[in-house]
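User: Please predict the structure of the protein below. I'd like the answer in structure-token form so I can feed it into my own downstream comparison script.

Assistant: Understood. Taking the following sequence of 423 residues as input:
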Amino acid sequence: MSGPQSHHYLVALADGGGTVPAELGVVRRLVERGHRVTALVDESMAGASRATGAAVRTWGARPSTEFRDWAIKNPLELAKSMSEHYLSGPAAGHAADTLAAIDGGRPDLIVTTFFTLGAMIAAEARAVPFDVLMPNVYIAPVPGRPPGGAGMRPMRGPLGAMRDRMAAAATTRLLDRYTMDPLNAVRVRHGLDPIVHVWDQVHRARRELVLTTAEFEFDGEFPPNVRFVGPVLDDPAWAVAERFDPPPGDAPLVLVALSSTFQNHADCLQRIADALGTLPVRGYLTTGPSIPPELIDAPVNTVVVASAPHREAMRRASLVVTHGGHGTVMKALAAGLPLVVLHHGRDQADNAARIVKRGAGVTVPRRAPADEIAAAIEKVLGHERYRAAAARLGEAINRDVAANALLAELEQLAPVTAPPRSP
């Protein structure tokens, strides 16, 4: 191993769909550096986790219900369902399983995600330092920046500051409402004092490692333990193909890549395919593992496949049409490609807001008709400024990836003393 001495890492992850490739990419990189790594994961991630070379343990607790966020329109119900599925529901089981893993072989550092709050509690209870991975933009409220979740863009002046404070307070109250009582019950059970907000648990981390580039993020007064370390650009394990075989010709190639998890988006894929059929382009539409390719009625200028090696496809593409998931966005920008975003939920509206603010693409409502989608594709392909803005962001992303700041932070186990690298 080149670099510092070997450490033992316990990485506690939950299956968040599109976040999995980036998080397992962190595991893989630690293993490749010669560290001893134990991955504590959902059963759905076990096979891909073993492929990283890490030792694998699976959570004993399982989500009691499917997280059907795409079907929930009421914000209260969405917050309740998210808490039960990802936050408060599994916290007690995650804490118990993490304690067992700690006691079975004490790690030097525990690495968690926002969704494994119980692992953070176990780390505190055993006085083991922990870092939190955020494989998207920074999700906690930050003074001077619009809060996450609603796709807000920055608004300057006193009115903007008031809007941001009120929106941040509202989203925090909503999250706390369904999470704090059961979360504090787990903390007290393990000898820890109660906390006031969900974010208080996250901020107890040694470092909050944001897997994006600072130039993509909005400005804000970030906590001193926050580090922007650049994205992990690994393709998911299912995105394999014997070859990349786009339609023939030399017309601009448009890559379509929507959610890797089901978000009731088959109809959206069909409208995108219909839009491509009206344009002088070549389409390459990937449906992902949740939508069978045969459901899409493709025009003659478009190939529909379940998966493809996105890195190779993006080298030859001119534009990416996407739902706005952070992984797809980062890969497209790293390739210098502008985007048309039809965001569906989760963090996607926030990513879309940053794409538009940085001038690297446009957004279209997810229920937009084919002619509106086609007009957006034509607009982005027809104006060089979108590609130029995407290329600028791509330079920053590739710089951060090459700098390897993620591993530098994880391998430096001294307490945090330096200020954060703030956008």
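That's the full token string. Residues 46 and 228 are 28 Å apart (CA to CA).
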